[in-house]
Amino acid sequence: MRKPSPKKRIFAQLARMAKALAHAHRLDLIEVLGQGERSVEELADAVGLSVANASHHLQVLKDGGLARARREGVRIFYALTDDDIAAVVAGLGRVAERRVAEVDRILREEFASRDAAQPVDQKELLRLVKSNDVTVLDVRPEGEYRAGHIAGAVNIPLPELARRLAELPRGKQVVAYCRGPYCLLSFDAVRRLRAKGFRARRLADGFPEWKAARGPVGRRP
Q1: Residues 43, 80, 178, 190: which is the catalytic one?
Q2: Quick one: angle between helices 40-47 and 51-63, nearest 10?
Q3: Structural domains in the chain plus CATH codes
Q4: Distance CA 49, CA 34 (A)
Q5: pTM above 0.85, yes or no
């Protein structure tokens, strides 16, 4: 039997990675892992799974080359193997938005109804930052912000927003972002800010996509 061509052997490995992506729970885990390294217990809590079920899906991601694990005492921590994994998932999402009717319906009914305004893309955000005409607002939990954030972003987790509005300058536009394009935290933040008189928009993507696009990133110990 002839040995498969190099192309077919590479495609076989790509198919193996794609198979690891092929579950909603694993895509959910990838979004959380895109914010930074997490323990199995933290990941299970973040996506609403049992520890055993989360461990199973994380092992599939690891076997597919998408995640890596390390042990610290009795705890196991996972991280993505490559920042570009977020870009792969985002690309899949963009195709689905154009070609899958159910995705289009969900976007119209559940997302556009929350915020019909055109979101800010990464190029526009960079332009606004350079012109000093924007406050970039990270509404994720503090631990995710510390692990990595858009450089210069202010962190006010969504549950704290109402009591910390004074920290946001009134004269600048606010661009809010969260975990990814389908994360609702930024939608809710923008709605609350507009109700208080702020000029607010949301970033089209989240932090993992920003990092994958090699946008400037900050970290806080």
Answers
A1: 178
A2: 110
A3: 6-81 (1.10.10.10), 116-218 (3.40.250.10)
A4: 18
A5: yes
